[in-house]
Amino acid sequence: MRPVALNRNLAQAGPDSWSSSAGYEADLVVARRVLKAEISGLESLSAALDGAFATAVGLCRAARGRIIVTGVGKSGHVARKVAATLASTGTPAQFVHAGEASHGDLGMIAGEDAIVALSNSGETTEFADIIAYSRRFAIPLIAITSGQRSTLAGAADVVLLLPPTAEACPMGLAPTTSTTMMMALGDALAIALLERRGFSSADFRLFHPGGRLGRRLLRVTDIMHVGEAVPLVSPTTRMSEAILVMTAKSFGCVGACNGEGRLIGIITDGDLRRHMGDSLLSQIVAEIMHPSPRTIGGGALAAEALRLMSRSAITSLFVVDDESRPIGFLHMHDCLRAGVA
Questions:
Q1: N or C: which end of the chain has fewer CB within 10 A?
Q2: How many other C-beta atoms are found inside a 10 Å radius of the C-beta of residue 5?
């Protein structure tokens, strides 16, 4: 890891304002000890996984409602993240605070839901009402806990048991390794459900339309020009008319389609310059066009189209179907405007 430059004001404040060399090394020792402890916990968790995990995935997949993820304290913070990950990967989910459930939020849980409860000890008192509610209405209850003989584990339909590992905190008190294992197990549950559902990148983009991730998943069909905006002529069209089409469409090129509607050639501004002469306007498109233009399918990622244009030193692509018939037109500026890079 490269050292991070100190803030100038901090650096000028003198040696009493920041760690000495010895302190710096001591901090690194602590950091590495914590990371090793948490890595060890994750390795133990991976080795301990058994059929209970597959059963839990099956219960979540079978739920016709939502996955209710619940917890309190640090486990509650992890539960919020797990719920968000489930929801963003195609599994409807909602976080319900176990304490608030006793004060009306049980109404957020329906009979077709499934509950995933996170508690390291499994003896969190706030779980009493949510456990009773799940048993009364036969709502599947999945426990993520290290308390094998705890109240939560005893009541649950499935127990995902966290293996006994030491917290990274030197006093063994602050939830560290345990919450890391919970987080990782929640991720594993979400991704297993994603794969069971056949969740695709197109589905993922539907739930992530904003930000860089959404832009990376844009497809050509999302941003291409269609219909009358696509610059097309016949190979027998006179160049005088083809130039008018090029000018009207403002893309700096025009495509040529044969009688079956297949794209067979393209004329660009560069082709016009190369064929400039007294006879240009009287010639037909077939005499000027460049055959076999580069094309792309509508299902391709916009980022892929941008890479193709950059690699080929061109600024536009015709979008074609499986029969090489134009269905749209894409300019490099369309990708850049959409934030694809």
A1: N
A2: 7
